[in-house]
Amino acid sequence: MYDLLELTRGRLAQIAPQALALLPVGSVEQHGPHLPVGADSIIVEAIARRAAAEASSEVPIVLCPVVSFGSSDHHLYWCAASLSNETLIEVLSDIVSSLHASGFREILILNSHGGNAEAARIVTRKTPLKCPVVVGTCNYWDIAKVALERETDLFKIGVKVPGHAGYFETSLMLALKPNLVDLDLLPPARKDIPAEGATGVYLQRPGNSVGMDGHSGDAHLADAKRGGVYLDIITSEVAKALVAFHAAARGQAPV
Ligand SMILES: [Zn+2]
Q: How confident is the model at residue 211, as a pLDDT?
């Protein structure tokens, strides 16, 4: 695994044509009273770095720095450093296009914040129409869903994954950076408001995240050891996805 920031231009030119560029995208937004605003960025940096290391025996991977600013306008009631969806599309388009211009032929956007998902998909759809590059995007929780369901009781006990600053994200943060979790400020448990209607219609309510007081679920149940287990499962599933994406991008497997 290579760290993009540590490569010289000569090494980059050698490595890029064969390598998968992994671009993690997070957010800077309030995460309840007890988690830091950079939680999504911290989580995706850890997952990307660990998964890239795990997959690197099979795939040459260049890890890009996290795009920490995401689309978080729905958290501005409290605080966020947010890019609009339109700006995020431009930012990700420019990064992906310039990575391609620098020699990369395959780029995977690894997302850790729901508000970025649409922008990342639009960039993934549009960029290969303009230049010969294979682009992919995924949310880490989607990649890990089946394994988390198989290997943990997360879904049986009704935890929303990832939710927002609830049991799941708080457990991940306790495993990664316990010093950044303020256990004295854990918010009261909340019943999650579903974002989607029962009919399959995608639905957003005005002030949705205000209504849920900026967090979901019950962070009191969060646990560092369990968070570590979730991280291991997510890492291993994302690593498998990197290998599969690389094979698909090189035409060795169906896209
Ligand atoms: Zn989050």
A: 64
Q: Which residues, chain by chain, have CB under 5 Å from ion ligand 1?
A: 40
Residue range 142-198, pLDDT digits in tens: 999 999 999 999 988 888 899 999 999 999 999 999 999 999 999 998 876 555 556
Pick the CATH number of 2-249 from 3.40.1350.10, 3.40.50.300, 3.30.70.120, 3.40.50.10310: 3.40.50.10310
Q: Which residues contact 104 (CB under 8 A, 6 or more apart)?
A: 16, 17, 19, 21, 62, 133
> Rounded CA gap, 77 and 68, in Å?
19
Q: Measured between alpha carbons, how far is 116 from 106 in angstroms, rounded to an integer?
A: 20
Place of tokens 């998964």: 51
CA distance 64 to 88: 17
Share the mean pLDDT of the chain: 93
Distance 26 CA to ligand 1 centre (A): 8
Cα separation of 11 and 197, whole Å? 50
Compute the distance from residue 40 Cα to the ligand 1 centre, in Å. Answer: 5
Cα 122 to ligand 1 centre (Å): 21
Question: Exposed, middle or buried, 36 (CB in 10 Å: 0-12/13-18/19+)?
Answer: middle
Residue 253 CA to ligand 1 center (angstroms) comes to: 33
- Per residue in 197-253, pLDDT tens? 567 788 777 776 666 788 888 999 999 999 999 999 999 999 999 999 999 999 876
The 10s digit of each residue's pLDDT in 233-247 is 999 999 999 999 999
Distance 160 CA to ligand 1 centre (A): 12
